[in-house]
Design brief:
Chain lengths: 569, 362
């Protein structure tokens, strides 16, 4: 809050603030902290209730688990590596050069994110798989095949091209914040070309890179859908899922796996934060220019456009594949489908209307809850003096490190045997849990949006309302909320679209087909060869929904950024 | 150290239709401390960055010791530049920042250790080598930026508004340090500033720029005493400007018809006016003597009647804004304890020494 006085004037901590904080805390305890704590606890107790490391010994004693653990780690690290390989040159091109591809790269940064990775995996099988279009062509003309979609290599491939935008977007943001004088002074002292990039630009952009890389690691480490769809089970997430669904909710090995997944997620995020502690490299001065942009030279253009075209082809492959699949009558052992039809869409609209409805219902409720809680936390942190209010933020943001699978296991364990109030039906079979899991998992996104929105509203605007006789509550309603509504909408949409494609918690928490959302439906369809067409059609619908949502959230976010100057004197 | 000269010949630079520099001709002598003075947007920073190689001129030549350096890229010029923001790299320690240029030059480890140590010693920061730039005060950061630049033994030292990010007291101190350092090293140094006091107190010579055109070059006294045009007269020090036209000559005196004031008779010697026609004259506020209204005039001064419009008490002097005819003039009167400050509305007589009046060409 640049320009705000050092001692920000805040409301005291009245009973209203305490009540609000109490409600938020109760929610976070019941649906985040306690379920996760229970998972961890279960992993460390024996049947008699005493402390034990026996489950861990048992886990690492079995070769399948050792192998899964190792595989998950390798796939996550390799995905970070390959995602960086794609993202770093693209980020550099965008920031450094003036050329028309910049818009293409921006598009590249969003395209993969609007398709759930497990949907992309199926489509990629058809294009890059052993008998996919590319390999059929290669075999026909050159007599060899590239087994890029097999096993762990395949998972790494899919994850890399799906998650590289996290690195790209973060890296571009932090590179844009580098003051041009940083680079010029290095040139002045004799540095240039690659050395200039390696010694000055990349280190200065490191915070953005690490933030992105840590996110990629966590996402890949936790992903359940992609390995399952690709038939890879010797990784941690599929193992946990298989143990819980086949052996049962009491199997301690499922919990051990969960603890390892949480542990590594937290470790990755903590390490990124730790390495970058106290290093705010945003060096752009007021009035200073950012890095100088150049025009591309002859062979540089060829290289740059070549690279962008290559990445674009690969990134678009899943979209193209899923689209072809949804229209394909028959498509196997051929470069392109043999015949086209619309009947998959018809069958989806006939049989899966409930799934679409469910997705809308759960996601609207979850995103609404997120915005409500996000605004409450933002208000408590920025506008009251409540002790330890920052911890609400830390607690809510911790959801980022909790895999959906682990949260679902925690719910099933915590609410086992509990009935819904006023009914006889157990909580664990109700769709309320799916909605709550979505809300908790996406809360960090909505929270960030709400915090940013409220930060832009200068406190004097609210004080003016109060001095004119408005009560605190009326000030919130008539001044604060209208001013931050754009940010709240952006948060709502982000929560909504990311929840719409969530699979890992969904798989465990869906107990009957009537309560299944679209993501579950796509997964089910993809299990059988005959279901692939309708599955793809449903996937296309999901991509369209998410794409529209992304576009809308960008619009909302932009609209809030414009009046920013007016509201921060 | 080998001192070099710098010469700009007919340098022009434009961004699209906007002309940023227009036909700049300038020669800076070896070992000189030279200031580029001008308001913001005058093109002074552009000229400095052009010397460093960050801007490219479209016409003209840029010579260092007679050699054209126009086509040498910035990293190969060996011209050191200290940036306005200092541009210290936050991910490196003070030591690594200073060593950067030497590492780029592939110097040996021993040489680097020796030179970086000496440079930090020179700016008085030997104990701060392990710190990060963020842990230093503004003045210390400035010194690190200086050490980082002089350690590579550049041919020329360029300083872009070196004192603008410091508070007032520190600015005066750093100004003296800069001057001292420049004398010690004997480096040909060019610095950019918008502050005429800064330029006058530090530089051997200076160039005044406005709208991309070089207005006047010379030492501080030369520019202050003999400004060539309205812009220089007003930018270097404060000046009273009277617009008007020379109407004729009468027995060794020039008749100057000043707009809104009337005819003034000036001695021929006072900067010979071009010819009859429109021009302007300028004189400094402290050269205007204030007398009580009705004081009889003498031939030594030009006498004008006026009224006090407003007063500013500045301590050393009282600054009065006077209404004379249809124009307003500024007069500074040295202040002594107990002397009353004239109140607005007081009628006064103003005496101007004709020898201090300058004709302006443009």
């Amino acid at each position: 809050m640049a320009g705000a006085p050092a001692a920000v004037r805040r409301a005291g901590a009245g009973w209203g603030a305490w009540t609000l904080a109490g409600a938020v805390l109760a929610f976070l305890l019941a649906f985040l902290l306690i379920p996760v704590a229970l998972v961890v606890f279960t992993a460390f107790v024996d049947e008699g209730g005493g402390f034990t490391l026996g489950h861990f010994a048992n886990f690492f004693g079995q070769s399948i688990f050792r192998e899964s653990f190792f595989n998950s780690l390798v796939v996550a690290l390799a995905s970070v590596f390959f995602a960086s390989l794609i993202a770093v040159p693209l980020a550099y091109l965008t920031v450094r050069f003036e050329f028309r591809g910049a818009l293409l790269i921006q598009t590249l940064g969003v395209l993969p994110l609007i398709m759930p990775p497990f949907v992309g995996a199926v489509a990629l099988q058809l294009i890059f798989g052993r008998n996919g279009s590319v390999n059929l062509l290669l075999d026909q003309y050159f007599g060899f095949k590239i087994p890029i979609m097999d096993g762990l290599v395949g998972v790494t491939f899919v994850e890399s091209i799906h998650y590289f935008p996290f690195i790209l977007l973060n890296l571009v943001a932090s590179m844009r914040n580098i003051d041009g004088a940083m680079e010029e002074s290095a040139m002045n002292l004799g540095a240039r070309g690659f050395r200039l990039f390696r010694r000055i630009i990349f280190p200065l952009a490191m915070p953005g890179f690490l933030a992105g890389a840590a996110l990629v690691f966590v996402k890949v480490f936790d992903d359940l859908g992609t390995p399952l769809v690709m038939g890879v089970t010797n990784m941690l997430a599929p193992q946990a899922y298989l143990r819980i669904t086949s052996v049962g909710i009491d199997d301690p090995l499922g919990y051990v796996t969960s603890v390892l997944m949480i542990g590594f997620s937290i470790l990755a995020l903590w390490m990124a934060a730790r390495v970058m502690k106290g290093k705010d490299y945003a060096t752009l001065q007021k009035g200073g220019g950012s890095l100088q942009r150049r025009r591309l030279g002859g062979w540089e253009s060829v290289l740059a456009y070549g690279w962008i075209a290559l990445v674009l082809c690969i990134v678009l492959a899943p979209h193209l594949g899923i689209l072809l699949m949804s229209f394909a009558k028959v498509w196997s052992f051929s470069v392109l489908p043999d015949a086209y039809t619309l009947e998959h869409y018809a069958s989806v609209f006939e049989n899966s209307r409930q799934m679409i409805g469910n997705t809308l219902l759960y996601c609207v409720l979850a995103a609404g809850l997120d915005v409500l809680i996000g605004t409450a936390i933002a208000y408590l942190i920025l506008r009251t003096t409540l002790p330890a209010r920052r911890w609400l933020d830390y607690l809510a943001s911790a959801a980022l490190a909790i895999p959906g699978l682990v949260l679902a296991i925690g719910y099933l364990r915590l609410f086992r045997g509990v009935d819904l109030p006023f009914t006889d039906s157990p909580v664990v079979t109700s769709s309320v849990l799916i909605m709550l899991a979505y809300a908790v998992r996406r809360l960090p996104y909505a929270l960030r949006s709400c915090m940013a929105a409220l930060q832009q509203v200068h406190i004097s605007l609210e004080e003016a309302a109060q001095s004119l006789g408005a009560t605190r509550w009326r000030t919130v309603r008539r001044v604060m909320v209208p001013l931050m509504v754009g940010g709240m909408l952006a948060g709502f949409v982000t929560s909504f679209i990311t929840a719409a494609v969530e699979l890992s918690a969904t798989l465990l928490l869906t107990s009957s087909e009537t309560q299944a959302p679209m993501s579950y439906g796509i997964y089910l369809y993809m299990q059988s060869a005959s279901g692939r067409g309708p599955g793809a059609a449903l996937g296309v619908l999901a991509v369209v929904v998410v794409g529209l949502g992304t576009w809308a959230s960008h619009r909302f976010a932009e609209r809030t950024r414009t009046p920013e100057r007016a509201t921060t004197p | 150290m080998n001192k070099v000269s710098l010469e700009a010949r007919h340098i022009s630079l434009s961004y699209g239709p906007t002309e940023v520099l227009r036909d700049i001709n300038l020669k800076i002598e070896p070992g000189e401390f030279f200031a580029l003075l001008g308001p913001s947007g005058s093109g002074k920073s552009t000229l400095l960055r052009l010397i460093a190689g960050f801007n490219q001129h479209q016409r003209g030549e840029l010579l260092v010791d007679g050699q054209d350096i126009t086509h040498i890229p910035p990293h190969a010029r060996n011209i050191g530049m200290v940036f306005q923001s200092y541009a210290l790299w936050p991910h490196m320690t003070v030591w690594d920042n200073v060593a950067f240029g030497l590492v780029e030059r592939r110097e040996t480890r021993d040489a680097i250790r020796r030179k970086v140590g000496a440079a930090l010693e020179l700016v008085g920061l030997a104990d701060y080598a392990k710190r990060r730039p963020g842990q230093l005060s503004g003045g210390q950061q400035q010194r690190v930026a200086l050490a980082r630049t002089i350690v590579i033994e550049p041919k020329l030292l360029l300083l872009d508004e070196p004192l603008s990010n410091l508070d007032k007291n520190l600015r005066v101190q750093m100004r003296d340090e800069l001057k001292h350092l420049q004398r010690t090293l004997g480096l040909t140094t060019i610095f950019v500033t918008h502050d005429q006091e800064e330029a006058m107190t530090t530089a051997d010579r200076m160039a005044v720029l406005d709208k991309g055109v070089l207005q006047q070059v010379g030492p501080a006294t030369g520019l202050f005493d003999f400004p060539v045009n309205r812009f220089v007269a007003g930018f270097v020090g404060t000046a009273n400007l009277l617009e008007g036209r020379v109407t004729g000559r009468e027995g060794g005196a020039l008749c100057f018809q000043a707009e809104g004031v009337g005819e003034l008779r000036l001695p021929q010697a006072a900067g010979a006016p071009p010819s009859e026609g429109a021009t302007a004259i300028a004189f400094r506020p402290h050269q205007v003597h204030i007398r009580a209204a009705g004081t009889p005039g003498d031939a030594a001064r030009l006498w004008l009647d006026g009224t006090v419009e407003s007063t500013e008490f500045l301590g050393e002097v009282s600054r009065y804004r006077m209404r004379v005819g249809r124009v307003s003039l500024v007069a500074d009167e040295v202040h002594y304890a107990g002397e009353p400050v004239l109140q607005p509305g007081t009628a006064v007589r103003l005496g101007i020494d004709p020898a201090q009046v300058r004709f302006l060409s443009a």
